[in-house]
Hints:
- The protein is about 50% helix and about 10% strand.
- The protein contains 17 helices and 11 strands.
- The chain has helices spanning about 1-25, 50-60, 80-90, 100-105, 115-135, 140-155, 165-185, 190-210, 210-220, 220-225, 230-255, 265-275, 285-315, 315-330, 345-360, 390-395, 440-455; strands at about 65-70, 70-80, 95, 370, 375, 380, 385-390, 455-460, 475, 480, 485-490.
- The strands form 4 sheets. A 5-stranded mixed beta sheet has the order 1-2-7-4-3. A two-stranded antiparallel sheet has the order 5-6. It has a two-stranded antiparallel sheet with strand order 8-11.
- β5 and β6 form a beta hairpin.
- α4 packs parallel to α11 and α6 (about 140-155) runs parallel beside α17 (about 440-455).
- Keywords: Endoplasmic reticulum, Heme, Iron, Membrane, Metal-binding, Microsome, Monooxygenase, Oxidoreductase, Signal.
Amino acid sequence: MDLIVVLVLSLSCLLLLSLWKQSSRKGKLPPGPTPLPVIGNILQIDVKDISKTLINLSKVYGPVFTLYFGMKPTVVLHGYEAVKEALIDLGEEFSGRGTFPVAERANRKYGIVLSNGKRWKEMRRFSLMTLRNFGLGKRSIEDCVQKEARCLVEELRKTNASPCNPTFILGCAPCNVICSIIFQNRFDYTDQNFLNLLELLNENVKILSSPWVQVCNTFPIFMDYFPGSHNDLLKNFAYIKNYLLEKVKEHQESLDINNPRDFIDHFLIKMEQEKDNQQSEFTIENLIISAFDLFSAGSETTSTTLRYAILLLIKYPEVTVKVQEEIDRVIGRHRSPCMQDRSHMPYMDAVVHEIQRYIDIIPTNVPHAVTQDIKFRNYLIPKGTTILTSLTSVLHDDKEFPNPRVFDPGHFLDESGNFKKSDYFMAFSAGKRICVGEGLARMELFLFLTNILQKFTLKSVVDPKDIDITPVANGFASVPPSYQLHFIPV
Length: 490
């Protein structure tokens, strides 16, 4: 009996090895570590910090190499030149969305983030157009962010300079801005429904960054047979989608096609215009998931960045002092900051960029895929192959940013103290799949942080030297550790 088991296992391994060799012959894939049958290279990958694994492997195999997550090959691009060549120079060919099995269980490839082909192009184009119509890049959306910044300041005043964990307060502000855009609604910072949504969004990022979800993305079948945090993630997704569905129903009942109020209204009007088109992508499913994508990405990534920003500012008080000196010089203590101020505040601009560069919030980007068979650097990558672009390798490039592991706003300043742009700044990714909300996020980070530093002195509850800024999770996203501080009114 034992001999039969051994024979069956041996034959299975040989069969799988044969299948792997067949798949590799379909294209001339880049080199990489030899995969094991069934599990691929999973034992060689640190699922707690995939980015670190990619850095180490790039030293052996160069800037373009292949990893097997299970039986599926993934081509990894490491370093600015390789990432730029793919995402910008060959943007259309590398514009596909790679597999993300855990998230796909929730959204079934609808919406903006995980869709492909015609659906993705139409949802992205419509979302960008609607954001512009709503006022992205114009005064109207800036007014919305400024109003929320004032609410944020007032909420921080209510802490009375007592020690506080800023997680939820900093989460409320960007979430309210995106809620205003999606369904023309902002919440009080104590609204329990609002706080529940924020808690779920916060929990989702932690789960997506957990080792277990990285394993489930490699072996999706595990989700069907094993308990785990992926079930919590799917439950959270379902709750938020149901909440958005209720908002859509409310909008359907009160819709005025001549006076659209927000993203949902614009989408419903487009649905009505295309109701006779059987191939239309403007469906309730795409509305719910597109709204979910905007809601999730527009809330959690910005709030996580804000949270990390405040942590870095209390860790490095000398940076905070220089920013506040610039604020006093350019804006003063009484006028509200505006986006026009940014061009006169090179140090603040450099600090905001350095925060994003340093924290490297999405280290390996959301997976891409090639949309056709493509020759890339003498390799032939078959259509549909997943592509991982290491944003860490770009944002932490030691030639562009000397001492990249050190937090230094000087990375974005020239010798005269003027702001210095860098093509290596890819915090929002690059190319055809660059973040839809990049403009909004840049505005929020500048205005929220400038307002906070104009109105408060930040004081850590521990000695700055003892503050740990190491992320507690570094899978899908870099999540800062929990901390407390005093917001002392100036």
